[in-house]
Amino acid sequence: MAANTQDVILLFGDSITQQSWVAGGIAQRLALNYVRKLDILNRGYGGYNTRWAIPVLEQILAVQHEQHHVPKVQLLTIWFGANDAAPHPSDQHVPLDEYKANLKRIVNMIRSPTSAYYSPNTRIILITPPPVNSHQRPDRVFEITKTYAEAAKEIGANLCLPVADVWTAMWEGSGRNEKSLSKYLYDGLHLSETGYDVVYNLIMEIIEKTYPEIHYDRLQMVFPPCVSLSGT
After folding, report:
1. How many whole angstroms separate alpha carbon 24 and alpha carbon 33?
2. Residue 80's closest CA among 60, 108, 51, 50?
3. Which residues of 194-206 are buried (b: 16+ CB within 10 A; e: fewer)?
4. How far apart are CA 230 and CA 140, in angstroms?
């Protein structure tokens, strides 16, 4: 078992998070830039919605009395909605009001002093679902996904949390043309390297503006560089 020497960034989401170890994905790029500073934990679960994610989060977070034994979560990204927005009667569908309540519950698991998982020093970023390209994915509806992205932004505003507005960035970047979203979405739902680039840049903009103390350029390596050990 690895010793508790390095804190972490925890990426919590669905398949779009799970797949983000690919070249150019957010997990891969964060791991590269935070090497020897913060570890990246990818907790993406393909096909999951917020309803199914909550019981998982209850198992992957340390409760308060255990937190001093494990690495601290310095940053938590929460990225759900792509599956919640699957049209009814899909098993993945979560009604919009429940989706909003679930996002709020996930955040409050970290932020509420009455929560068993309370972690007041954990920073949080909400991420909106990306748009869908229904020309590639006829089982998804563009306008429905838009409402879930708007809901994520609403929850972020209500809870005073920064939101990476992936939906708007990709929609504007496509020239507001649904077919042109194919440059960001390789199958109409999941992200290409170009799509992940948009998300990575949004995350780093938020870190620079809201959480600058954990920007990789401002963190020291956990162990000293080898040049400082010369002659020892």
Report:
1. 12
2. 50
3. ebbbbbbebbbeb
4. 59
**Residues 11 and 17: beta-carbon distance below 8 Å:** yes
Is this prediction's pTM over 0.70? yes
Residue 164 φ/ψ, nearest 5 degrees: -85, 105
Give the mean pLDDT of the chain: 96
Half-sphere exposure of 205 (CA within 13 A, CB side): 13
Q: What pLDDT does 179 receive?
A: 98
Check: CB of residue 83 under 8 Å from CB of residue 136: no
How far apart are alpha carbons 198 and 95 in whole angstroms?
Answer: 27
Q: Which pLDDT value is given to residue 114?
A: 97
Contact 171, 179 (CB under 8 A): no
pLDDT in tens, 43-86: 999 999 999 999 999 999 999 999 999 999 999 999 999 999 99
Classify 210 as helix, strand or coil. Answer: helix
DSSP 43: E
Cα(148)–Cα(143) distance, integer angstroms: 9
**Confidence band of 1 (pLDDT split at 50, 70, 90):** low
Catalytic residues, by residue number, are 15, 187, 190
